[in-house]
């Protein structure tokens, strides 16, 4: 597999707010805050178990921390399967799944997580929620393709997208801005 992401491509991903949803300044801040935490956890895993080889021996990681962070941001922003960023970064899907699994908890500890207790079903509820908190927000919507529901399932026709004429689940994400 050929590694697609080089320094120029990585810089283009960082500079494009459409891809990650964040400005380059915010990404740089995440790298400086979350990078050392990831490195500490990685070293703790390496030294925590008995080893046959010295620490650092063996296969090298194919994704550096910046690539892991960018892949996680792309995955979270677009809701794409792990196959898509894996192709971008030139690694296997399982490698990318592991990388996202390592970075997501670090982002959640920093406060980059969804509030599990808030579920807004209509645009009016979203506007009321933003009005109560006194914040502005960004709404991002997407359709995710799904398998066709079984025959006889209640609301089977609810999953058909009029735009793409495919079976899809529609989701919207609200991001509050400070």
Written account of the structure:
- The structure is a single chain.
- This protein has seven helices and two strands.
- The radius of gyration is 20 Å and the shape is globular.
- It has helices at 7-15, 17-20, 24-48, 65-78, 83-89, 93-110, 123-133, and strands spanning 136-145, 168-177.
- 15% of the residues are buried.
- Helix 3 (24-48) crosses helix 6 and helix 4 (65-78) crosses helix 6 (93-110).
- A two-stranded antiparallel sheet has the order 1-2.
- The mean pLDDT is 77.
- It starts with 6 loop residues before the first helix and ends with a strand.
- With 178 residues, it is mainly alpha-helical.
- It folds into two domains: 7-110; 123-177, no CATH class.
Determine the mean pLDDT. Answer: 77
Write down the Rg.
20 Å
Fraction of helical residues: 40-55%
Which sequence of strands runs across the widest sheet? 1-2
* Assembly state (oligomeric): single chain
Q: How many individual helices?
A: 7
Tell me the total number of β-strands.
2
Report, as a whole number of angstroms, the end-to-end distance. Answer: 41 Å
Structural class: mainly alpha
Low-confidence stretches: none
Percent range for β-strand residues: 5-15%
Summarize the biggest pleated sheet: 2 strands, antiparallel
